[in-house]
Amino acid sequence: MSLKSLRLATAGWILIAGLTLAACDTAEERAEEHYENALELVAAGDVARAAIEFRNVFSLNGQHRDARMAYARMQETEGDFREAYRHYNLVAEQYPNDPEARLALAQLAIRFGDWDEVRRHGERLAEVSPDNESTGAIFALLEYQDAVEAEDETARRSAVARIIEIKDDLPDGSIASHVAIDSLLRDGDMRGALEQVDAILEREPLNERFHQLRLQLLGQLRDLDETQIQLETMVQRFPESERYKQALIQWYVSNRNLPAAEAFIRDQIAASEGETQTSFRALLLRFKRETEGVEPALEEVDRMLASGAPAELFGSIRAGLIYDLGNRDEAIAEMEAIIGEAEDTDEIRNIKVSLAKMQMGVGNEVAARQKIEEVLEADPGNVPANKMRASWLIEDDMGDDAILALRTALDQAPDDAEIMSLMAQAHLRNGSRGLAGEMMALAVEASGSGAKESLTYARFLIADDEYNTAERILIDSLRRDPSNTEILNLLGRIYLELEDWARAEQVEGTLRRFDSTQSVKDADALQVARLQRQGRRDEAIAFLEELARSDGSIGGPDVALVRQRLEEGQVAAALNYVDERLESAPDDPLLRTLRAAVLQSDEQWEAAEETYREVLAENPEIEGVWRSLYSMKLRQGEPDAARAVLQEGLAAMPNAANLLWAYAGQLERDGDIDGAITIYERLYERLPNAPVIANNLASLIATYREDEESLDRAYTIARRLRGTDIAAFQDTYGWIAHRRGDFEEAIDHLEPAARGLPGDPIVQYHLAAAYAASERYDEAIAQFRKALDIAGPADTRPQFERAREEIERLEALRQQ
pTM of the full predicted structure? Predict the structure, then answer.
C-alpha cells in the first residue's frame, strides 16, 4: 500500500471513529434530556407523560441508573409495587453493589411478605453498606418471622419490642404496627390489636388496609354496634367502592334493620346514574321482594317504569314478579312481548334466558332448551345461557360437556362464583373430588366468603372430616354476615364433632340472642346434642321435657325425648310421656304416630297398627306413617303384608320418593330386577343429585346387565362415587371398574368395601373376582371361599356358582 493510500485510509478510520463518538455523545445527551424532562413532569404530577419520557431514556441508554431508580420510585409512589420491584431489580443486576436498590428491594419484599427475598437483599445490603441504618430494621423483621415459624413466643415478643423501637427506620411506618398487631392476635389479644389499629387510623384516616383490618377485628369480637359504624365509615371514606356499599346493605339486612337498608339503597339510586343507577334500582326490587313480598315489589317496579327506568330490563323484572304471583301464562306472554321484534342485544338475550327459566317452571322444557340454543347460537359466550345449559348437562351426567360450557362462561365472567359452584358440581358428578374442592374454594373467594358458597364448601370439607378448615371457612363468612344463623348452626355442629364444648356452648348462646323461632330451635338442638355427647343423658332428658312443656307446641322436642327414652330401654316412661301429651292434644297426628312407634318398639303389633291405620285414615298423605307401618310389617316377618302396605301408600302418594325407594328395594329382594331398575330410573330422573339413588341404580345395572351399553350407563352414573369412603359406594364403583378392565382401580375400591361390609357375600365375591383378574390367584381363592362361607349353601344366586367354578379353575392353574 502506498504512503498516500495509507494516509487516506487512516483519515477514513479517524473520520468513522469520530462520527461514532459523536453519535454516542448524541445518544447519551438525548437520554439525559429525556431524563431531565421526566423529572420535571414527575415534579408537576404528570405521571403518564413522565413514564413516556423514562421509556425514551431506557431505549437510548438501558444502563441509566438514576433514571431507572427515579422511574421505580415513581411507580412505587403510584402504588404499582410490582413494576417498581422489577426496575429496582434491574438496577441491582446492573449495579450489584448499589445499596439504594438493595434497600428498596428488601423494603418491597417486606410489603409482599416474600421473606426469602427480604433475606437475600437484606444480607447483600449488609455486605455492601454495613453502616446503613435500615439494615437493622430489616433483620429485626426477619427475626420476627423466624420466631413465628419456630413458634418461639419469647423470641417473637422480643422481636416486636425491637421493631417498635426502630420503626422510623422501616420502609413503611405501618409495618411496625402490622407486626405488633399480628403478635397481639397470636396472643389472642384482639382488644389490644384494635387499639393499635385505632391509633393508626387516627393518624391516617384514609388507610384502607387498616379500615379493613378494623372491620375484621370487630367481627371477631362480635361487636355488632361498632361493626355497623365501621361499615358506614368505610362507605363514607371510600365512596367509589361498591364492595363496601354492598357489605353495608347486607349488614343492615342480616341485622334486620330493613328501614336503614332501604333508605341507603334509595340514597344510592338518587346519587347515581346510568348503569350504576340501574344496578341499585334492581337491588331495591330484590330487597322489596325478599323483605316485603311480591306485590310491594310490583308496585315499586311500576313506579320505576313510569319514571323512565329502562323499559326492557325492568319490564322483564315486572314479568318475573307476575310469574312469582302465580300468573305464569301472563308473565310468559309479557316476556315474549318484550322480546318480540326487539333487536338482538345482550340485554334481550339475557331476557330470553329468563324466559327459558319460566318455561322450565311450567314444564315446557323443549321450549326452554330451544330458547337457550337460540341465545348461544347468536352469542356462544353468553354467561347466563351457558350456566343454564351446564346445569342441564350436569343433570344429564354429561359433566365434561358441562365443564366446557362453564369454561366458556368463565372466560367472560372470571369472578362469577356461581360458575365456579357449577363447575364444582360437574367435577363431583365426574368423581373428581379434588377438582371439585378447588372450585368450591375459588367460589368462596370470588363471592367474598358469601354464605351460600361457604356453607357448600364447609359441608364438603366436613364430609372429608376436615373440620378445622371448614371452621375457618365458616368463621370468615360469619365475619361478613354475623347474623347468619345457618352458618352459626353448622359451626356449632363442627364444635360438637371436635368436642370443643366451650365454643359449642358459645354458639348456642349467640343463636339464642337472635331470639327468632328458628335460631332458638337450633340452639336447643345443639344443647341436647352437646349434653348427649358429654354423657349427660339425664340433663338432656330434663331439658327436652322442659322444652316440650314450656313451648306448648308439638314437634322436635317430643320426638327427641321419646327417641332418647327408647334408646335407654325406658318404654313405659316413653309411653307415659306421650299419653300425658295426648291429654292436651288428643287428635294430633304426630303424637299419635309417636305412640304407635313406642308400641311398635315394645312389639305390641296390633295396637301399633291400629293407631297407624287411624292416623292414615284421616291423613293418607303422611309418608312417614306409611314407612313406619311398612318397616313394622318387615320386622314382624310378614313380607307379603309389607308389600301390600307399600302398594297402598303408593296408591295414596304415587310420587312419594321414600315409598318408591322402599318399593324398589322390595322388588330387588323379590328378584324383579327390571322392575327395581325402572323405579330407580324414575327416582334418578327426579333426584339426579342423590348419591344413594345413583349408587343403587348403577349397582343393579352393573350387576345384572351384561351388555356394553348398560355398562357405560352404569359407569356414567357411578363416576361420582369414585374415591368415596362409603363401603357400598366403593363396592359399586369398584365392580364397575373391574368390568371395564381397570383392575387396579377396582381393587383400590373393593378392598375397603369388603372390610366395610364383611357380612355381604356379593361384596366379597366382587373383590375375589378382581383378584383373579389381576392374577393374584392365592388371594382370589381365599376370597371366593370367604364369599361362599358367608352366603351359605342355600344361596343360589349365580355369583356363587361362578365362585365355585373359579376356585376349581384357579386351583388347576396354580398346579400347572
Answer: 0.69
Q: What is residue 770's predicted lDDT score, i.e. its pLDDT?
A: 94
Structural domain includes residue 801: yes
**Structural contact between residues 751 and 773, judged by C-beta atoms closer than 8 angstroms:** no
The answer to whether 366 and 349 are in contact (CB under 8 A) is no
Residue 677 lies in a domain: no
Nearest Cα neighbor of 158 from 138, 171, 140, 177 is 140
What sign for the dihedral angle of Cα 265, 271, 276, 277?
positive
Under a CB-based contact definition with an 8 Å cutoff, are residues 128 and 103 in contact?
no
- Is 458 domain-assigned? no
Measure CA 341 to chain center.
41
Nearest to 307 by CA among 687, 726, 299: 299
For residue 723, the 8-state DSSP code is T
Q: What is the pLDDT of residue 12?
A: 41
For residue 769, the surrounding DSSP H or E stretch is helix 761-773
Q: What is the pLDDT of residue 541?
A: 67
Find all residues with CB under 8 Å of 148, minimum gap 6, and list them.
156, 182, 186
List C-alpha distances in Å: 173 to 203, 354, 757: 11, 52, 63
**Range 229-248 average pLDDT:** 88
- CA dist 310 and 365 (Å) reads 29
Closest CA to 92 of 104, 108, 83: 104
188 vs 644, which has greater pLDDT?
Answer: 644
State residue 11's pLDDT score.
40
Q: What are the backbone dihedrals phi and psi of residue 728, each rounded to the nearest 5 degrees, phi first?
A: -60, -40
d(CA 704, CA 354): 43
Tell me the pLDDT tens digit for each residue of 353-387. Answer: 999 999 999 989 999 999 999 999 999 999 999 99
Find the helix packing angle between 153-165 and 133-150, rounded to 10°: 160
Q: DSSP secondary structure string, 199-237?
A: HHHHH-TT-HHHHHHHHHHHHHTT-HHHHHHHHHHHHHH
pLDDT value at residue 548: 59
Dig out the grid coordinates for 319 from the structure.
314479568
pLDDT given at position 510 = 86
Write the CATH number for 108.
1.25.40.10
Q: What residue numbers bound the domain in which 135 lies?
A: 28-220
- Residue 250's pLDDT band (boundaries 50, 70, 90)? confident
CA distance to 383, 757, 805, per residue, from 778 (Å): 57, 21, 15
Domain count, the chain: 2
Q: For residue 765, which of 729, 745, 726, 738 has the smallest C-alpha distance?
A: 738
8 A C-beta contact, residue 141 and residue 118: yes
Residue of 619, 579, 618 lying closest to 599 (CA atoms): 579
**Of the residues 186, 205, 220, the one at which a domain ends:** 220
- Burial class of 751 by CB neighbour count within 10 A (0 to 12, 13 to 18, 19+): middle
Give the type of residue at 749.
Answer: H
What is the tens place of the pLDDT at every residue in 279-328?
Answer: 899 999 999 998 889 999 999 999 999 998 889 999 999 999 999 999 99
Last residue of a domain, which of 195, 220, 245? 220
Give the three-class secondary structure for 255. coil
Cα gap 67→73, rounded to integer Å: 10
Determine the pLDDT at residue 29.
82
Residue 284 lies in a domain: no
pLDDT averaged over the chain? 85
* SS3 track for 444-511: HHHCCCCHHHHHHHHHHHHHCCCHHHHHHHHHHHHHHCCCCHHHHHHHHHHHHHCCCHHHHHHHHHHH
Greatest alpha-carbon pair distance for the chain in Å reads 137
Integer Cα distance of 750 and 671 in angstroms: 25
pLDDT of the residue at 19: 39
Mean pLDDT, range 470-474, rounded to an integer: 93
Which residues have C-beta within 8 Å of that of residue 3, sequence separation ≥ 6?
Answer: none
Q: Cα–Cα distance between 132 and 129 in angstroms, integer?
A: 6
